[in-house]
Amino acid sequence: MKKKHLNRRQLWRIQKIQDDYAARAERKHDSADDEQTPDDLGPEEKGLVISHFGQQLDIEALEGKETGEIFRCHQRSNLEPLVTGDHVIWRRGTPTGVVIANLQRNSLLQRPNNFAELKPVAANIDNVIIVIAPEPQAHANLIDRYLVATENSQLRPLILLNKLDLLNADKHSGLQELLQRYSAINYATLMVSSKTGEGINELQEYLEGQTSIFVGQSGVGKSALINALLPGVNTLEGSLSKARGKGRHTTTSARLFHFPAGGDLIDSPGIREFGMWHMSPAEVFRGFIEFQAFTGLCKFRDCQHKQEPGCALKAAVDAGDIHAQRIQSYQQILQSLNE
User: In this structure, which topology does domain 281-336 adopt according to CATH?
Assistant: First the structure.
């Protein structure tokens, strides 16, 4: 469906409605804070954001005899939005505690919302696991968008093909070619099946000892993978819509899980589109790692890498050093910056 372009007044009205919602939520939030005086709260201690639900957070205690237990908390209104993976200072209370400070982040994965405002997705992560599957259909441009965001956040990506048991040589041979295309430019790839268990041990070894996040479309089996990696967690698994071949959302907010041998895994809600509106053309270019060897080699400094004479990227495509699909994907992302 073609995107509906809104005029300035319509955008202003939408933003005003959103601001009114936020203001009402903030007043409720402040009143919840006011119900608890400092004398009602426990001492300051360190915690980890396991998940969040609007104005409330699930905080895992990291100190004391209750280490590992989960407590529901409010967030102080003067703090920036917190996300799963944040390390915080909190004070327990009855019935809810209060988060009073956010500790410095080592990394942050973000995506823009419909108002081109950056929305944090997860913090303090090492790996971004881009999950694809035979169904719903994997789109190279969505993978490339995740890779651009990952490269600009200095995180390590893994392209993970799930539902290997559904892979049909005749119908899905393009998926294996897609993985080989990314392997050729030194991206890590892996094929697994959460149903049969094939490849799960290799995935477990890749994830252990680090903090990773699963990203991808709804229906690719992220929750099923977590159930295979962590038996007993029993996260809700979704099904594909028969009408559209798209996944149904089962994860509504990012949640963090611990591996017994060490390391954490964050499951994020399914994303069908991943906007790049907040990025500059230079940042998009930097996200295509195989382009970097040709930086500054074009005949014209303002080369758009389309049909200009002396374009180093076009020459690289002709020579087989850059895949034509990657150039096409790069141009699609650039075009979307102005839409």
Answer: Ribonucleotide Reductase Protein R1; domain 1 (1.10.40)
- Per the annotation, binding residues for Zn(2+) are 298, 303, 305, 311
Q: Calculate helix-pair angle for 140-152, 324-336, nearest 10 degrees.
A: 70
Cα four-point dihedral sign 88, 53, 274, 134: positive
Q: Which amino acid is at 55?
A: Q
Q: Are 190 and 158 in contact (CB under 8 A)?
A: yes
DSSP 251-317: --S-EEEE-TTS-EEEE----S----TTS-HHHHHHTSGGGGGGTT-SSSTT--SSS-TT-HHHHHH
At residue 237, the pLDDT reads 45
Paired tokens of 282: 């230079």
Task: Give which of 163, 300, 158, 148 is closest to 225, Cα–Cα.
Answer: 163
Across the range 200-204, mean pLDDT stands at: 95
pLDDT over 80 (residue 106): yes
* Residue ranges per structural domain of the chain: 33-102, 108-267, 281-336
Looking at the domain 33-102, which fold is it? OB fold (Dihydrolipoamide Acetyltransferase, E2P) (2.40.50)
Report the binding-site residues.
Answer: 162-165, 298, 303, 305, 311
- 169 SS3 class: coil
End-to-end CA distance of the chain: 15
Q: How high does pLDDT run on average in the chain?
A: 83
Length of the chain as a residue count: 339
Q: Hey, what CATH topology would domain 108-267 get? A: Rossmann fold (3.40.50)
Please report, in range form, the residues annotated as the binding site for GTP: 162-165
